[in-house]
Every structure is written in structure tokens, then in C-alpha cells.
Amino acid sequence: MPHDIHDLSLTGRGQQRIAWAARHMPVLGQISDEFAQEQPFQGKRIAASLHITTETAVLLSALQAGGAEIALCASNPLSTRDDVCAALVARGMSVFAIYGEDLPTYQRHIEQTLATSPHFVMDDGADLIVALHNRPSDGTVLGGLEETTTGVVRTRMLAAEQLLRFPVIAVNDTPTKRYFDNRYGTGQNTIDGILRATNVLLAGATFVVAGYGWCGRGIAMRARGMGARVIVCEINATRALEAVMDGLQVLPMAQAAALGDIFVTATGMAGVIRGEHFLAMKDGAILANSGHFDVEVDVAALRDFSTREVQVREHLTEFHLPNGRVLYLLAQGRLVGQVAAEASPAAVMDLSFADQALCTRYLLKTSQSLPPAVYDVPPDIDERVASLKLSSLGVQLDALNEDQRNYQNSWKLGTV
Questions:
Q1: DSSP string for 69-116
Q2: Among 326, 323, 315, which residue's Cα sits nearest to residue 261?
Q3: What is this structure's pTM?
């Protein structure tokens, strides 16, 4: 298959690691078997821009089992696993991604992926969707799926400006993705990335989380569970109030900057930690980002302020400021859990990628009748994914009896 990857000889190692992930993704395994029997995607081309991890490989293999032709590029230059790329090429997919690729290569790989004239696009951050909208339409693309918060925001802006050309399902916004992947997956992989990059002790540290959405909630939960004192920075009153009632301190970043030992951004907004914050920080403060793009920590301003920059560990850069203090930046300001760790665990990605797989089939059946817009995941898909996961865990649910169903469906039954 056409490809541009680092090293095909890594295939064996990639296959082993993908097999390990698949063992922990029983829901997607069941859907893959279903697709293999039905062949719903026979003759259809799917282009994907995703974090190229072992879990992503299990998703793409399920779609391939259903007859799809797959072309893949990275959604982040530093989250690509070269051995996974090799294994996917060996499985007959076109892969255009190399760990650490520069921006021109990253953009070229997007173009090579789109050159396959896909019928459907799967995106994580909307770079693929935006690239499609920066070129003339040939009418081939029938629909798309967006996996992450930042990408959903970008896609909604395209729709708001009446520029969106095809229906897109916001997979990120469905409960079986947001409540679990964003909260438990990102919560764990962010802490994992920080610990692998620094080996610092979280117990007793002051840990500042910017943003208390589902990702921020998960990060704060895990940091607090390891003994850190957590401060939350927010712009949304409701989320800030929730943080307060969760027992956390809420402060503006201007005040938190002088208190924090470790800072993590999870907002989807640019310039969350800026020059004035750097100058107020303690000597040795650690900066990390868990948002999709490397814009939440103003790395350019940090470099401008610095008198010296030293790479002290893998994924850990030391910046010397004129005031004599030193700050540490993790993973170049990119997604710390994807870059310095191994992304979200397979068991939680089983939910997100099951949503992706079933939504792709849903789009196949409905895209011709859906006008260009951003759509929620159909509730029956979300419910099915949750039910399959519970079944795989051996968990059983209660069911309403006839009297309860009558009570639920009547206005006559009350206190009199």
C-alpha cells in the first residue's frame, strides 16, 4: 500500500502491542465481528487523522474487517507510534505518519491521505476536515466524525458560517466518550505523562488545573487522589462552582501562578498560561498541557523570556528566566498524556472507538439524507455501547416491572 512511515521492520513489535490492546477492547471486538459478517463498508474509502496508537489500530482494523479501505495520517506529530504505523501498513492500510515529523511533513501527509478521495473522514482535532474545506469539493465525501473537543468546536464554527459541506457527528460529546475517555482516560494519561517525564512526587505538591470540563475534572481527581493540593482556574461560573463543591480551591491564574508547583492546561483555549504568569511562578515550576493543540501554554513567549533552554530529560525542557528562576516545560507544550505516556488505556478507548465505529456505519446509512451540520451521536448507539461494556464486565442491570412502567407512563398516580 502507498505509505510514508519510519520503518517497516517494526511491524512485529507493532502487531504484538496491538494484540495486547485488543484484549482490553471487547466491545470493539464484538463490533468488529459484526462488521466482518455484514461487510457494510465494502467499496468505501475512509480517511483518518488520529493519534496513531495501538487502540486506534484496533478501531481501524474493525472498519477494515467491514470492508473499508483505510488511509491514515497523524493528528499530532508527537503521538505517533512508529511500530503501529508499520503494523497497519502490513495489514493493508495506507499510512502517512512519522513520529516527530515537522510541520511541512505533517501537512504533506494530510494531503496524501486526502488524495485517496475518501467517502468518510474520521478526525481528531479537525485538521483533516479543515484541509478538505480549503480545497475545491469533488463531492466524494459523504460524512465525517470528530473525536475531540477542539475539533468539535472548529467544526461547529464551519457550520455556523455555513461553510460545512457534509454532516459530521460529534463523537466527543456523547456520554460514553466524554464521561469516560475525557474524564478517566485523560485524567490517568495526563498524570502518567507528567510522572514519566519528571518522576516528581505529587503528594504535598500544589497542582493547578486550568479548565474544569470533563478532562479537567479527571485530571484534578487523579492529582488529588495522589495527595496533591489542587487549585482550579476557570472562566465558567457553573464549572467553577462545581469545583468548589468538589472541595477544590478556585483562583484566577494570576493568583494561582505564584502558588503552583505543577500546572496543567485542559481548556481548548489559546494563551491560558502567558508571559505574566511565567514571571510570577516559583523556581522549578512544571508546565504541561492536556489540550489538543500546543497553544494553551504560550511556548513562544516562554522562549522569548528565557536566557537559556536545556533539554534535561526526554520530554522535559528547562527554561532559565532573567529573574534567576527555572521553569520546566513538558512535551513541548503538546498533549502530555499522548507524548510522554501511552494515551488513554485501551479499556476506556473501547467505549470511544466503539462509538466511532457504530457512528461510521450510521453515517453510511443516513448521510445522503442529512444536510451539512454537526450532529450528536444517536442515543441508541450510546446506550448500546454502554450496555455492551457492562456485559463484558459481567455487570447486570435491574429492569422495570409492569407496575413500574405503568407508574412511569401515567399522570394519574401521585400522593392522592
A1: EEEEEESSTTS--HHHHHHHHHTT-EEE--TT--HHHHHHHHHHHHTT
A2: 326
A3: 0.91
CA distance 190 to 220: 10
Strand partners, 4: 96
Q: What angle do CA 152, 156, 159 make, to 5 degrees?
A: 145
Q: Annotate 254-284 with b (16+ C-beta within 10 A) or e (fewer).
A: eebbebbbbbbbbbbbeebbbeebbebbeee
Amino acid of residue 53: T
**Model pLDDT for residues 152-197, shown as the tens digit of each residue:** 999 999 999 999 999 999 999 999 999 999 999 999 999 999 999 9
Over residues 27-53, the mean pLDDT reads 97
Q: Which three cell numbers stand for residue 66?
A: 467491514
pLDDT, one tens digit per residue, over 346-357 is 999 999 999 999
- Whether 321 and 276 have beta carbons less than 8 Å apart is answered as no
**Residue 346 gets which letter from DSSP?**
H
Taking only the tens place, the pLDDT of each residue in 98-111 is 999 999 999 999 99
CA–CA gap between residue 285 and residue 336 (Å, rounded): 16
Distance CA 170, CA 159 (A): 12
Instruction: Give which of 175, 138, 169 is closest to 151, Cα–Cα.
Output: 169
